[in-house]
Amino acid sequence: MTFTIPIDNGDSVNNAEADSQRKLYNTFSFLYAVLMASDMGGSYGSTLRYKNIERRRLLEIHRYLDELVLNDNMWDDGNSLGPKEVHNYLTRVMYNRRNKFNPLCNTLVLGGVNNGESYPGMVSMIGVSFEDNHVATGFGNHLAKPILRDEWHADVSFEDGVKVLEKCMCVLLYRDRSAINKLQIAKITEEGITVSQPYSLKTFWEYKAFHNPTAGAEGSW
Fold first, then answer.
1. How far apart are CA 184 and CA 167, in angstroms?
2. Average pLDDT of 35-55?
3. CATH code, 74
4. CA 12 centroid distance within chain
5. What's the rounded Cα separation, in Å, for the pair 90 and 178?
6. What total number of domains does the chain contain?
7. How many helices (DSSP H) and strands (DSSP E) are in the chain?
8. What does each C-alpha distance from 108 to 20, 177, 210 come to in angstroms?
9. DSSP SS3 for 208
10. Which of 40, 111, 150, 212 has its CA 20 to 30 A from that of 65?
11. Is 11 domain-assigned?
């Protein structure tokens, strides 16, 4: 499953809908903002059962965040939780559930902007967490991360950032049979969160390698 939790200066929280472990999510930061991209498919085992999932619906993890925000507001000390604090809290939640042998089988992707600094982070189902300039889940960890490492830079523009994410999603679409050619891109700034309408990428399936993918393969298969 994949959750997305965009945090805008600790004030607004969105969650993504549960999905297959194989779903694709790519996130990276640029100047004063974070960009996220995800397809809209939902798998039931190996079946692509749902084809129009918008990853902004509330799930069980939101209960923990509600408690966190409520306790923070009760202090009424003029301070609010930023993305780093929420990320640390979610890491402890996931690690605690893992230690109880009742893990939340999800990967949490968090992005936010606080005091002009962008913050993308990720937490696995066993509480392994890290922050980086770009994060990915599912096959994106293997196929999209090399693209992000090569093409990300701190002063990338919004338009160029969208192109990089679309390139990643296109590669993942070609390589993952359960992927779907319908995606959304979210932009997170200190002013708020903007999620695009669903749209499809232009694809080209006439590559020679696609016609005979086993050409040159070795082995008994």
1. 13
2. 83
3. 3.60.20.10
4. 17
5. 28
6. 1
7. 6, 11
8. 13, 23, 33
9. helix
10. 40
11. no
Q: Which position has the token pair 């509480």?
A: 127
pLDDT of 162-214, one tens digit each? 999 999 999 999 988 888 899 999 898 888 888 899 999 999 988 888 888 77
Residue 198 lies in a domain: yes
Q: Order of strands across the sheet with 129-131?
A: 2-8, 107-114, 117-123, 129-131
* Structural contact between residues 1 and 20, judged by C-beta atoms closer than 8 angstroms: yes
Q: Which domain range does residue 73 map to?
A: 27-211
Q: What is the pLDDT of residues 7-32, one digit of tens each?
A: 444 443 333 333 333 345 567 676 67
Separation CA 190–CA 174 (nearest Å)? 34
pTM of the model: 0.77
Evaluate whether residue 14 is within a structural domain: no
Q: Residue 190, exposed/middle/buried by CB under 10 A (0-12, 13-18, 19+)?
A: middle
Confirm whether 18 is domain-assigned.
no
Q: Report residue 5 CA to chain centroid gap.
A: 8
Element spanning 145, H or E: helix 145-151
Determine the Cα–Cα distance for residues 25 and 183; give it in Å rounded to an integer: 10
Distance CA 56, CA 92 (A): 23
Residues with Cβ within 8 Å of 9's Cβ and at least 6 positions away in sequence, in order, are 80, 82, 112, 113, 114, 190
Under 8 Å between Cβ of 94 and 109:
no
